[in-house]
Design brief:
- The protein is mainly alpha-helical and 231 residues long.
- The protein contains eight helices and six strands, in the order ααααββαββββααα.
- It is elongated.
Length: 231
């Protein structure tokens, strides 16, 4: 994310109007990150939120306003994409929940959703089972055939005996599988967490050494090496 000290805003005087815009960008980017960074600092468990907060604050201290705003924006944008993907999965689950109606009428001329899994006792009709099985064409049902909650009745009337409670229907099983898949972490995610537990503290230590050793041992510029530590 570092653009170089000769880049835009790189160590040069920044007009007040531009600086105010950068401040707004930084605040917008860190509004959800800073509390998590503070919690990580209190627990002595450095994470990416803390790394980004320190990088942004350090860039401001050395006058790199453009870079501070850029880092804050990019990190906030990545978090927004992650939240969007999680929200999309939750919305998909919510749509599955909407498939099963809260009530059922005994006889109705128009097509309705089947409320519970069951077996046809009387009548003939076609059912749209696409929400459950993915079949593109309606399936004909007659006495003795099984029906699933969430499927849509066609033109005929069916008398159905329920065979499963609401929590035991095929739709409920699909919902549980989806929720478990969302909650279960993949092996790659677990590996990333183990890697980050070592990587993040190592980055902190390395950055501190980069910032301190050259000025202390070789009389190098504190500003230059502080900037390189932030990078």
């Amino acid at each position: 994310a570092a653009l170089g000290r000769e880049g835009m805003g790189g160590g040069h005087a920044v007009p007040l109007a531009a600086r105010l815009v950068y401040v707004v960008a930084v605040l917008a980017g860190l509004v959800t990150v800073a509390p998590k960074a503070w919690l990580a600092l209190r627990r002595f468990r450095p994470d990416m939120n803390l790394l980004m907060t320190i990088a942004v604050c350090g860039a401001i201290v050395i006058g790199e306003w453009f870079e501070a705003a850029t880092v804050a924006f990019l990190f906030a944008f990545s978090l927004a994409l992650e939240a969007w993907s999680v929200g999309r999965a939750r919305r998909a689950i919510a749509k599955l929940l909407d498939l099963a109606p809260p009530t059922a009428r005994l006889v109705a001329p128009e097509g309705e959703r089947i409320p519970l899994d069951g077996r046809v006792l009387a009548g003939r009709s076609t059912l749209n089972q696409a929400p459950i099985t993915g079949e593109s064409r309606p399936v004909e049902k007659q006495p003795g055939d099984d029906v699933f909650a969430g499927t849509i009745n066609g033109a005929g009337a069916l008398e159905v005996e329920t065979t499963a409670a609401a929590e035991a229907t095929m739709l409920a099983k699909i919902l549980r599988l989806v929720e478990e898949a969302q909650a279960r972490r993949s092996p790659s995610e677990r590996w990333v967490d183990r890697f980050a537990a070592i990587y993040t503290p190592l980055v902190f230590v390395t950055a501190l050494l980069v910032a301190l050793l050259p000025p202390l041992l070789a009389g190098a510029s504190w500003g230059d090496w502080g900037y390189r530590a932030l990078v």
